Each structure stands twice: as structure tokens, then as C-alpha cells.
Amino acid sequence: MLCRSLLLLAVVPALAAQAPVGDLDYGRDVRPILSNTCFACHGPDANKRKANLRLDLEGGDAHTKSGKRAVVPGDLAASELIRRIEASDGDQMPPRSSGKKKLTAEQVATLRRWVAGGGARSAHWAFEPPQRPTTRDAASPATLDRLVEERRAELGVSASPRARRATLLRRATLDLTGLPPTPDEVAAFLDDASDDAYARQLDRLLQSPRYAEHMARLWLDLARYGDTHGYHLDNVRTMWPYRDFVVRAFAANMPFDRFTIEQLAGDLLPNPSREQLIATGFNRCNPTTAEGGLIDAEYLAKYASDRVATTANVWMGLTMQCAACHDHKFDPVTQRDFYRMFAFFDSIQEEASDQNAAFAPPDIEVPSAEQESRRDELRAQVAATAAKLTAPDPVLDASQLAYEEATRTRLLTLWTPLPATSALSRAGASMTIDAAEHTVQGSGVNPARDVHEIVLRSDLPSIAALRLEALLPPDTRKLGRSDNGNFVLTAVELEVAPADDPLRAQKIALLSVCADHAQPGFAPRAVLDGAPATGWAMVDALTAPHELVLAPATPFGFAAGTLLRLRLHYESQFARHTLARVRVSVTGDAALRPSIVSPWSSVGPFVVDTAAHAFAIEHGPEHDPDGTGLFAGGKLAWQPQPAWRDEQVHDLGKVGNSAIYLRRVFECGSERQAEFAFGSDDGLIVWMNGERVLANEVMRPAAPDQERVRVRLRAGRNVLLLKVVNGGDGHAFFFRVIGEDVTGVPLDVSHALAREPATRVPADAALLQQHYRRTFAASHRALEAEVARLQGDVRMVTAAIPHTMVMRERKQHRDTRLLVRGQYDQLGEAVTPGVPAMFGAPEMTSRLELARWLVSGKHPLVARVAVNRLWAQLFGVGLVRTQEDFGYQGEWPSHREVLDWLACEFVDSGWNVQHVLRLILLSSTYQQASGADADPWQHDPDNRWLARGPRVRLDAEVIRDQALFVSGLLNPRQGGPGVNPYQPSGLWEAVGYVSSNTANYRQDTGDALYRRSLYTFWKRTSPPASMALFDAPTREACVVRRSRTNTPTQALALLNDVQQVEAARKLAERVLLADHPDDAARARGMLRLVLGRRADVEEEVILVSQAHAMQAHYAGDHAAARALLAVGETKADDSVDPARLAAWTLVAQTILNLDETVTKR
Amino acid sequence: MSELNSSLSRRSLLAGAALPFAAWRADKATPGPHFAPRAKRVIYLVMAEGPSQFETFDYKPGLAALYDKDLPDSVRNGQRITTMTSGQTRFPIAPSIFPFAQHGQSGAWVSDRLPMIAKMVDDITVIRSTFTEAINHDPAITFLMTGSELPGRPSIGAWISQCLASENRDLPAFVVLHSSWTGRKEAQALYSRLWGSGFLSSRHQGVLFRSAGDTVLYLDNPPGVADATRRAMLDSLAAMNRLAHARDGDPEIETRIAQYEMAYRMQQSVPELNDLRDEPDDVLKLYGPDVATPGTFARNCLVARRLAERGVRFVQVYIRGWDQHGNLPQDLTNQCRDVDHGCFGLIQDLKQRGMLDDTLVVWTTEFGRTVYSQGALTRSNYGRDHHPRCFSIWLAGGGIKRGCVFGATDDFSYNIVQDPVHLHDVNATILHCLGLDHERATFSFQGRDFRLTDVAGKVVRGILS
Fold first, then answer.
1. pLDDT tens digits, residue range A661-671?
2. Which of A948, A1051, A1076, B308 could form a disulfide with A1081 if both were Cys (CB 3.0 to 4.6 A apart)?
3. How would you write A972-1003 as a 3-class SS string?
4. In sequence order, what are the beta bridge partners of A953?
5. Do A295 and B80 touch (CB under 8 A)?
6. How far apart are CA A727 and CA A680, in angstroms?
7. What is the ipTM of this complex?
């Protein structure tokens, strides 16, 4: 870097002569040598410092072991530094073992001159505030030109002439909008003889929405913006509202200080607007993970470190991440400094895992105005309707009281709670019996697996059924004792004995079972199936009591009283899933036993022409309550289906458009309520005792629990009838019982009723009212359905509202600690938020203060770093080439005064980005021609002397956008979710996590294909292929500077990418359909569309002869022509002869592949 | 990024127009080997997701007697485990259900799942004491490939491309192949960063050679554009570009002309690489029956050999599907079958061509697996969680001992008891075989000299021949 410029000086004699002896600048000439070769062991890092010698500080050699001084001003012989760098024995520095190269003769000479000249050190230029060059501070491009010209004069080179106007307009248009000018724009400019013609063109370009998109695209590399999470599954992340914020900010020419504050700390502003919150997405763009087995602290530290590194790099040009593990080797940034910065970002309300969801909290909704008003309206309707549900109703309320009294009396006699005489845990949990409540509660140790054994006494002469209530313990309010509050009861065993002869125990086989609720896959039947792994569980309803009812084949009991020994097994793979608190009751009333359910029988398929038809018409079984009918002219009869189990999706065969009927009988001892879940492929109608309770005409694959329906079962026989309708292939259904209330009253209602009216709590009243009205008032049920429908609408609208991830501070800040060696689990000293000590800044406590400090206007780095990026955007190389490093190891600026002047202009103009762009674009320096004779390319390949205009290969996105633009394909739509344009097949599939939602690439169609590349969906683990080939970064980390390569694979992409071929065809069509007198004019017109200039005669000849040769070729091979014209989604224009269009498509490809086309010159 | 990118092609042009394939050629900035290399090229086989060492190379006969016993706390010693199993209340020991036998002169133990590799143990060095830090896939495989758990660093192939460039003007220095697999369907993701160039010039990123679609992205001409048509178009293009060069003098234009010519030559030369008609039957047979199917690991091994033969420095063959958290016996069996014959064919084929002497073959992964079962342990089924503290890999060819077993783990393959080899050490050793000192193969970025081995790594002398 700097060494390279020195070498460059050395190889160009004319320049060496410009640097007379004595004109040595410590910062420019000396420190880079010391920094690169010495500071690693004799610099800021205290842990790695050797011999107690610091060469980065004046007097840093005062206390060395040897007592010798490294630098004795003016005395080469006494200066140990000089002796060591010249030594070739064991004293040699840097030592051979360090791997560092010996200093070159020039470097030694420089250090000798420095010591001889007094060995003075000066502060690093970039850490001192920029100085406005006092005598030439007019806010005019002429100032810039004067400063550049002075440097050219020193170097002995002269400026190039002004670029041709057409070239200049193309350059400026590409630089400001990322698109070329139209021929009309060029013509207008050429015709405009006024003095300010060019300035007015710039004004026009700065106003263009294309300007904002182009600037935003460049910023997004810094923000490491992507449309996926980046790690592991790399699922979709919706951050595009942030991307659109950046576009809006540039469109409004938002001052850079505001732009900074809102992105770093918009959430901490007083009453932040939605826009200010979206802006904070900048530091939520870091990659995140949800990998199974992740360790939270490790990833939270990674996220915060990424934010420090990115923020320091983007605003200060500092490579702070070096100090995550140790003090910085070169720059005055300590590890403590790093973790003080880290502390600013350590208290975000975020979880380590992004859960593979589209957004990870903290996030905000970003609704459109339409979505917002629609939802407000719906919510008001919900509130109004819901209010009616609980509105007083004298008639209903009076009858409710009567119902409560009657039901209470009935329920109190139905079940008899049993006192427990003992309760034991096989694995050692403490079991506590509450004699008053008749409950048994577990506490203390909770082993992975356990069996609870409870002995109870009953005085009922005959027990027809048992009830096990799962109750909420007062402390945890969850039914189970596991971490998530769930339980899995895997088996229930019962032994009984006469109370007067306990040794005469016998096993009682429990044959039927039901529960008022069960989680999918954990039906109550599993407690009787003999399999230890399966059981009854409740993940979705753990905060209310539930009951399990068990019945033997015949009642049992002893006259002297009965002892019951109940064993509750918890032996699933789910550790510690035990019930916290239970109560056992019995009844002698056989009517309360679980209903007896018949196997399924089915009839069908009834094949018809369409699925809609199959759904709509009655095929007969609707009117066959006994299940004995014959249908379809006697050809179809009910078939028993004993193998169909609940909780499984059953295939009904591939039968095309048809309906199948399924039937099942429930025998109940008493009137009761039940809830069923269904799934179907495709449509479904359900009748209970002839009443239609569900109809859903859909096309879908079957899955568990697609519908849930509450039904009333009467005492006796109940017929459940399903009609499963199929369209196309695949016919299937799913069924399970979610729950059955054997008393007809839900358990929580029973409990509320059981309490004395005086001791009821408000929640009880609400519950009872709801239960009563729901059961007995049809108008209430209709209202509930209406509320549910409206709530569904609210959910639909809400689900469609995009979210974006934002910053929010935790209420309670984390105690940030230094992480020793950067290891998340090696906690060091506690640190408070702060910026590196070298800045001498006042104490600050929040991100907002950090952001304000950065753009206070006094910061030495921020403005310089920002204007240097703008310079690099225009010239291809920054005034400081190392845009990402302004520290000691960074390169000395090629034109420090220009950089400082622009930095001052930036701040003094109110951080006006467009002001700085105007200053540069209006300068003669920028407007120089970029072509040159051979010589300058050799001596100054990167144009650091600014003796010619900028010349840079276009960025990946600009190359694609330009092709879309000149061919007329570009869709100018702004904003919204990313789009998936053409991409070679198989790229995502080759790398994607199989179940990731970005495992398969689904290309868009229609005009979504032709959006600006800014809007291309960015999958970070497989970024858009054509862009990656042209050096686009992956966006997994902040990239300040793209590389710019020139490779054969780029040639292949421009020649063969579907998008490029299609664009060439559209460009050819554009030209062939335009009013051109002859092929020469067509060739000129095409070149002008792409390059904005007139073709030379030689060019015209080449293009026309190519067109003719190709046309002759394709005239003889129409099939080939048609094949070429079929590339891409747009249709070729029929009115053009295919051979002719194919030929001109290749001419267009030639022009689109020109070096000049992919270069800004 | 410092000096290499932007001016590279220009500089190579200055060096003489005799380097038409500037982008993939060594130029003056390419350091070249530091000392005489033992290997000229590397074929690097990536068993993504962590094959179990217990069912492959790390024979633990003592475990049979400890079936379903708890792993002693003294062995685990409080080490972190992933949160997938940290909730498990027990850590029941799962012995391999597959028998092991000793093979070859070296007497190396190999399980019966890898019968073909077992036949060639005398050609390879097995390291049973490899270790790493990361415990989850994403950071672990990123570390394996780039020497850092965080994205942003160049991959090993990019480093080697940067240091050594390609031997073949017509092919990139670093080629990547992805394989189909039949083990666990639910495979982990791969990431382009694993063959990315990080802060090195993007011309060093791995070039994907695909088994379906264009072999190299955008290689094929569009429909209706025959070779001669393309040639004629390129001639017009070159003529136009030469006019521009005469006008503006920018040497980058000449480079671009050369790159288009190179692209055209690639169109001729690359398809031939996938065309196996010139491979005799006895060679095909070495790789086993899968070689007939494009995209299989065996086929990719053969393509890798063809690439190596043509001077590609670094060929990387990925196969996913080794993440056997459950159903290990069945899935691992399938996965072993996917790779066993291909590995054998590759080594034997290289050997019979005399290429094994200067080709380094590496068979590696991001971490190993636990001695205890994840999920239910039965006599016939179990799974294993991630285990970074020790795992088995093997190397063969240029510079590597033949018939060597290196390093050892404790009775539970939980801790290393002899000759630990960090992944940084493996990388240092790979570079060493290529004649590169891993401490001198550096690149200056953001003011710091970066290297593949970060600030660690030492050459594993004990496996060098």
C-alpha cells in the first residue's frame, strides 16, 4: 500500500526527484514502515510487547531492559533501532523467526534520514481533525481542481483535455443513476450551448428516482443487506422495508448526520417514527442462525461483534474487529475499547436464534396505508360485535341463574372425589396429599422418568368409571412439571382390594378412555395401549384443568369399601413430563363412561365430471342413517374399514373427481359435548346426526387438524358422516377426537360451578356466562361465529403486513464484560459503553450518543471516510485507497488536501451528499477524458495522479440494469419484496438445507423478471450467480470495497445468460421496428442506444457486415433463428423476419459485450 | 484489498501478451511455492456434516461391554455439548454395531462399512486425533474451509489459487463438485463462502463444475447459436474492441479480448471433461457402479482425477448427508456405500497413473460424533450428536506417509490421548505438501497480514513421508 507507492516513486525517476531530502513526513514515510514491521511486537498491544519497547509512542523506549534507546535524535550511531535493522546476526530486526521480511534498502535509508533529522513523531493524519486549506476554501469545484493541479505539477504530469460531451454525459449518468443516458438525453445535452448545460444535467440526474436506487445499492454492501438470514438454513428474512428506507433517504437527500443517527439509534430518538425505526434495520442486517444446538451466549456475542466491526468500519474506517481478541496490533485501539463499543450493541432485545422465521424480534409491522385502515376498520367491528357477547340480557341472565343452580347440584353428585391414603414416586419425587382438596401434588426432584403410585379409598359399592383430573398447582400454573409445562402420561394401571382385606388385590382392566382435550398424536387411548413410549399430553392447553375418564368393562367394588391402587406412568422420551397435581374421583353412574366408537365404514367413490360437482350433489348416503343402503344402482355398498385408526392420514386411492362417504357411530351413556378434528384431500362436508356441521370446498393435500368442530352428542346412538371430495389426484382424510366432556360441561366450568357462588372470582362469572350462552343461545353462537370470522379477517390482513427487523434496547441492560481472547465463555472485566480512548471523547452511555458523536462534525474520521467512499464510487479508487482502513496500516491519501477539503465541505454543507457529488462531478478533474497514450497506463495504472478522467468497469448490477434499460425491458417499479429473475437451474438446490424455504429457486415470471438488480432477492449463501461472477459480495459481512476482476467466466455470463440474450433480442427489435432508412443507420442507432455516441465508420462497417453475414446464415436455418428468438420469457415480435431478427440479436450481443459497454469511461 | 485485484490483469499484460488467460494464470504477484513441493495439486473430499468415527476408523472394542451404560462424568469432564442433547438426562454409550477388522501391512482397523477403503489402508494415513472448536455445522464447516468460524475469509482453495494459480491455461485453479447422496435426506446446507474468495480477488473463488445444466455456469451457447456463429460474433466483437483500444489505449481492453478468447476455448475444452468415453472399462470399474451416474460421488471422483490430470490445482468434492443424529446404522451404511468405492477408485487410479506421488488427496469433515446415543438407544438403532473434540480423517499421496495411523483417542473416543491435530494443523500440512509455508502465505487486508491458519497451525511432521 504505502510501500507500494514508495516503490512506485522509486521506479519513476521523475517522481523521485520531486521528493527532496529533508522533506520527510513521519506519518506518510516513516510510520508505515514501523507499523508494518515493528508495531506487532513493539506497539500498542501490551500482551505481545517485547523488551518493553514501544515504537509507536514518543519516549516508548525509555524503560527497556537493555537501557539502550531505540531512537537517539540525530545520533545514528547511538540509536539501537538503526543498528538492529542493519544487523544480519542474531540481533537482526525484525527477527528471522517473526516471518517478517528484512527491511529494504530504501526503508532503511528512510529510517536513517528520520533519526538523523531528529526522529520526531507526529500524530497520525487521519486521527487529527481535517483542516480546510485556508487560502482556497471557496465551495467551488475550482478549489478541487487547483489542489489536484498542484499535485500534478509536483509529479510533473499534466491534465487530460475535457471528455467529449456524449462521453461525459454517459459517465455522469452511470455514476449518478447506474443507468446510461437515452439518445434523446444525449442529443438534448449536445444541443444545449448554455454555460450551465452540464450543471443542469447533473441537477436532473440527482432528482431522478434512479439516483436514489443507485446510491442505495452501494450503501447496501456496507449494510450487509440480504434477503436471507445467512447462517444455517438461510431462510427468507424480510428486511426489504429497510432497503426501501435507504432508497427514500437518498431520494430526499437526507443529510448524512441524520442518516447516521437514524440508522444507528433511531429507536432511541424521542417518539421515533416508523421510518426512524425501520432505519435501525442497518444493524439488524447481520447474519443470524437458528441451528439446532446453538449456544445463545456465543451467537449473541457474534452479533454484537459484527455490529461493532461494521459500525467502526463504515463510519470510522477502523478495523476494530482486530481488537476483539487482543489489543489492536497497529492502531491505538485496545481490547477494552472494543468491548466498550460492544456494550453499545450488547443490550438489544434479541434472541440468539432467529427461529428460521421471516423476521426475528425486535421487529415492527410495515403496513401500507390501505392495510392499516382496513385492519383498523375490522378491529372496530370485532370490538363492537364482541361487546354484544357479554351485554346484559335480562331473560338469558335469569335463566342462566336457574341453570347454574340445577347443574351445580347435578355435578356435585356425579363424581365422588377419593381421599388418598398414600402417594409415592418410584423415582424419588416428593408427593404431597391435600386431604381437604383430595389432591396429590408432586414436588422436589423430578427425574426423567417416573411412576406415581396413589392408593385411595372408596365407599361406593359399585364403581363404573374413574376420573383423573389434571389440576394446576398454585405456584407454576402449568399442568406438567417439565420445562415447557407439558406432561406425557404413558400408562394407567389399576389394582383394587377390599378395604378389610387389602392383600386380596386384583388387577382391573380398564377398557375405555376419553379426555376432554388432547394434543395431536397424544390421544388418551395411548395410556391403555401397553406401549411405554406413547401417552396422553396437552401441549396446547396447559393452563386450564383437564380430565381423563377411564372405565372398566363392568363395575367393581366391595361392600366394606374399596382400596384402589392407581399407577400413573411417565415413561416417554420426554424427560420430566410428569403431572404436577391430580385428583381422582369415581362414579357409580355407568352413563358417564366414555362413548363407545364403532370402526369406520365407507362407501364410494362416486365418480363425477368435476370436483365441484362431486361436492355439490347428494349421492345418497346423506339419507341413510342406518348405514345399510345400496347406491349407484346397487353397485356401491358400505364397506367396513376396521384398519383405519384415528390420528393418521388415510389414503382413499387415486380416483379422480369423486366423493367418498365415511361413517361412524358413537354410543353415549349421557348427553355430552365433543370436539373433533378433520383433515381432507380435498373438500369436506360433515354431518352429526344428520345436521350439517361443517362444509369446506377446498383443494388441498390432507393434513392433521385442518378443521376443528364442536358437536353435541346425545345419549344413545350418534351417527357421524363425512363426505370427502376429491379433485385431481390424491384422495385422503384425517380424523381424531380432540376431546369429549362426559358430563356435557367442560371441566373448568364444572370447577367454577362447584365453587359457592359467593366465592367465585370474576373469571368464573365470565366463564359461566360464556358457557351458558354458548350452549343455550343460538343468537350467541351466531355472534361468536361472526366474531371469529372478523378475527379471521383481521388475521388475514395482519398476516399480509410485512415486518422488518429493528433495534430496540432491553429495559434491563446486560452487564457487558470483556471477552478474553474473544471467547464468549471467558468473561473478563466489566466494561461500560464508550468509544476508543484515543478520541478523548466524553463519556457516553447510549447508541444515540455514539451516533451523535460520530456526526458531531468534530470527528476526525467520519466525514473523510464518507467522502472518500463517494470519491471511490466515481473514480474507482479512493483518495485513500484502503477505504476500509484509515488507521496506521491504511494507505496515505493520494491527495490529502482534496480529501480534507471535501470532508470540511461535507460537514459545513450540513452533511449534504449531493453537494459533495456536485463538487466532484463539476470539477475539471472529473470531466477529463479517460483515454490516454500508452505511457500513463504504465506509470499510473490506477489513475492516482488524476491526470485523466475516471475509467472503471461497471458493477455487476449496473451491467445487468443497463442491458434491461437499453433493450426497453426495464421495469421501473420501486420497492417491495425481492424478486427472482432468471438464474441457471440447480444453484440453490445444490447447496440448500433440504427443508429451508430457500432450498429451491422459484423463478418469477412477467415483469418481475425485469426489475432493477437492487431488487433481486439476495440469498446470502448462494448470491445471484451472474452478479457474484462480477464481484458482487455475498453480503454476509460488511464489504467496503469490491474487487474488480476481468475473467472468462464473466465473458460467458454476458454471452449466454438468458437475460443478456433476451435483452439483445429486445434491443434488436427496438432498432428493427424503429424508423431507420438502412442497415447502416440501424447499426448506428443501436450503438447510440447503448453507448450514447455516434459510431465510427469502421464500427459501422463491422456491425453491418456482421448483420448481413448472420442474416444469410439464419435465412438458411430458420429453426436456429427461431430457437435463438425463443430465449427469454418475452415473445419475439412476429412482424420481424426471424432470420433478420436473429442476425440483429447477435449484432446487439456484440454491442452489449463491448469493453466500452461494460466500462464507464 | 490491496494490490492484487484491480491492476492484476494489467500487470500481467505488461509482463507480456503471452498470457492470454490472465485471470487464472499466475502473475508476478503470485508468490509461488516457498520450497520444493511434494504435491502439485490437491483433491479434497469433503464429508460434510461429520461422519461418525465410531463406525469408520476409530475402533473402540471396549465399548461393547458398556452398552447403554452412562458415559462417566470423568470422561466428559464438563465439556459443552450441543443443546440438542444437553437436555438429555442420560448419556448412554452406544458401541458401534458394525464389526471392525485389521487390514493391510499397517494393520489399520476399519469398519466393515468401508470395505474398499479397507483394502487400501496401506496407501493412506488415517488421523484419528483431529479436533476443532465449533460444535454446530455452520461455524464448524466454515472453519474447516476458511480457518475462521465467521464468514468473510478466503477458502482454502482460494488461498491455493492465490498462491499457486492453475497449471492449465484453459481451466481455473480451483474447481468445486457437489455430489448426490443417499444417507440422511434432511441434509445441512452448504454455503458459497465455503469455496469463496473472501477478501482475495473474486477470481480465486471456486468454479462450480456441475453434473446437470451447463458444466460451468453459462458455458453453453444459447439455442440457435452454433459454434461457428459464436466464433463469427466473437470476431466482430474483438474487432470492435481493438478499435476501442486504438482510441483509448486502456490495456484492460486487451485483457478483455483475451478473456473472451479464453471463454471460447473453455467452451471447447470443458465439455470433454465430463465425457468419459475415453475412459477404459477397467478404469471405470475401479470407481464402482455409481460412476455411470452423473453427480454421484464416484463419478465426481473420476471427474476430479480428470481435472487434476489437466492441471487444476485444487479440486473439491462435496458430499452431504452425514448428519446421523438418529437412525445412524441405516443412514451411515448408505452414506458409506456412496463414498467407499469412489475413494478407492480415485486412489488406485491416481496410483496406476503415477499421479499419487504428486497429488495430495484429503478426506475430511468438520467434526466427529459422540460416543453416547442421541435419542433412544436400542441394540439395532441409535444416533450420535456432534463432537468436535476428536474425529477421524485421512490423507494420501504427495508428501504423506503410506500405511500410517496417526494419533489416538481414549477408550470412548471422547478425548485425544496422543498427537492431537487441530484443523489449522491439517491446513498447515496441506500447504506444506504444496511447498507453501503457511506462516508466509499471507495476504494484506485491512492493515493485517491474514493467513489460512490465522495465528496458529503447525505442520504435522509425523505423517509426512
1. 999 999 999 99
2. A1076
3. CCCCCCCECCCCCCCHHHHHCCCCCCCCCCCC
4. A1159
5. yes
6. 11
7. 0.79
